[in-house]
């Protein structure tokens, strides 16, 4: 967020009530920026409280964020974006599962809420940047363009969930924790030194709007029961389910088939068909994917050059990298092939491409091509 020399910016710090966003806001203020804290009220039930370490958008969290802002010495506000969050994130989440896909609501929230609705409102009010506690780095190039890079500490890197940000959004993004080569324990120690009460607060886990972590129960309340069959790759009926939306590709637990496979090995979810409400299961080897097609690509800065090129790809928020060849077909379709087969690739999830540490961009997985499996 700097040109040739540092300058004082008007910064809106998104404060979730957790330790990372509090330390990020404190660092931005310490760097001399004019910082204002804001907590996003995203829950449709403002009286809800977190359960254990789950969730991040409750009254308890807003109180924690306010106390942190008071200690830092910055103004603080609560902005109600619950309706926008419900439409763009929660409703989309439900619709994707209903369609047999596996969405990532964190990417959707970054794309539609934190760096769209929040950023647009911030810019309209005269702010220069939105600051968050994500672990990633924005690099300003000599030609004035910006690049999104992995955090200095790969163990905490969160660039995957930021792979939806475009050049305009990167121009107004600030990630003060991105260059931190410290452990999370040291971030907590820094928070304690600064007098921030959230220094010992547990990290939030799972999906913020599903406080108890029961995704299947959350979906069942909204979609109802829809009994169907669980079948093997040959179409043989092995059991039943109460809703295909309750499964995801690669799932092993909770199948309740009732009897082991002929070879005695575990079975996994291979396919989810909302058309006939069928869930197909099979051996782990049948999960091997050699290629995929992804749609709705978004580029973090400059788009890739024409033709196939080699990148590394990340397929889930906490997954590792794998080498791929990717090519943009037209403007809306990305074709990707893997050097080695990968497993657990689910339509609806995001694939994020990297060139070294630079985030090239992301796209939503639409279809996969399974590896040809030799018959025993």
TrEMBL record:
Its EC number is 2.8.1.13. Transmembrane segments: none annotated. Residues 156-158 are annotated as: Interaction with tRNA. Residues 217-282 form the tRNA-specific 2-thiouridylase MnmA-like central domain. Keywords: ATP-binding, Cytoplasm, Disulfide bond, Nucleotide-binding, RNA-binding, Transferase, tRNA processing, tRNA-binding. Pfam families: tRNA_Me_trans, tRNA_Me_trans_C, tRNA_Me_trans_M. One of its GO terms (cellular component) is cytoplasm. ATP binds at residues 14-21, 40, 133. It comes from the Bacteria. The keyword RNA-binding applies. Residues 291-365 form the tRNA-specific 2-thiouridylase MnmA-like C-terminal domain. The active site is at residues 109, 208. One of its GO terms (molecular function) is tRNA-uridine 2-sulfurtransferase activity. Catalyzes the 2-thiolation of uridine at the wobble position (U34) of tRNA, leading to the formation of s(2)U34. Belongs to the MnmA/TRMU family. This is tRNA-specific 2-thiouridylase MnmA. The lineage of its organism: Bacteria, Bacillati, Actinomycetota, Actinomycetes, Kitasatosporales. The gene is mnmA.
């Amino acid at each position: 967020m700097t040109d040739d020399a540092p300058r004082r910016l008007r910064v809106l710090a998104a404060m979730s009530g957790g330790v990372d966003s509090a330390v990020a806001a404190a660092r931005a203020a310490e760097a001399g920026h004019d910082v204002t804290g804001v907590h996003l009220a995203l829950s449709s039930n403002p009286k809800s409280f977190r359960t254990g370490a789950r969730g991040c958008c409750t009254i308890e969290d807003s109180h924690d964020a306010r106390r942190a802002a008071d200690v830092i010495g910055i103004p603080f506000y609560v902005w109600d974006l619950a309706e926008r969050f419900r439409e763009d994130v929660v409703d989309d989440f439900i619709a994707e599962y209903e369609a047999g896909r596996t969405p990532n609501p964190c990417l959707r929230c970054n794309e539609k809420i934190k760096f769209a609705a929040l950023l647009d409102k911030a810019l309209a009010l005269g702010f220069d940047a939105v600051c968050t506690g994500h672990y990633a780095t924005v690099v300003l190039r000599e030609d004035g363009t910006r690049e999104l890079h992995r955090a200095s500490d790969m163990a905490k890197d969160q660039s995957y969930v930021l792979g939806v940000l475009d050049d305009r959004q990167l121009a107004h993004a600030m990630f003060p924790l991105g260059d931190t080569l410290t452990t999370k324990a040291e971030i907590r120690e820094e928070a304690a030194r600064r007098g921030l009460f959230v220094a010992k607060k547990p990290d939030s886990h799972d999906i913020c709007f599903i406080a108890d972590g029961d995704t299947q129960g959350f979906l069942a309340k909204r979609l109802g029961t829809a009994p169907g069959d669980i079948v093997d790759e040959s179409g043989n009926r092995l059991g039943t389910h109460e809703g295909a939306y309750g499964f995801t590709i690669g799932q092993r637990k909770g199948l309740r088939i009732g009897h082991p496979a002929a070879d005695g090995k575990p079975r996994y979810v291979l396919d989810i068909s909302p058309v006939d409400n069928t869930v197909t299961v099979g051996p782990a080897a049948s999960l091997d994917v050699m290629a995929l097609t992804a749609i709705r690509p978004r580029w973090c800065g400059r788009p890739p050059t024409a033709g196939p090129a080699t990148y590394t790809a990340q397929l889930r928020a906490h997954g590792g990298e794998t080498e791929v060849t990717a090519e943009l077909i037209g403007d809306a379709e990305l074709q990707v092939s893997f050097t080695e087969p990968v497993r657990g690739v689910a339509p609806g999830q995001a694939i994020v491409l990297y060139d070294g540490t630079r985030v090239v961009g992301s796209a939503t997985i639409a279809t996969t091509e399974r590896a040809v499996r030799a018959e025993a």
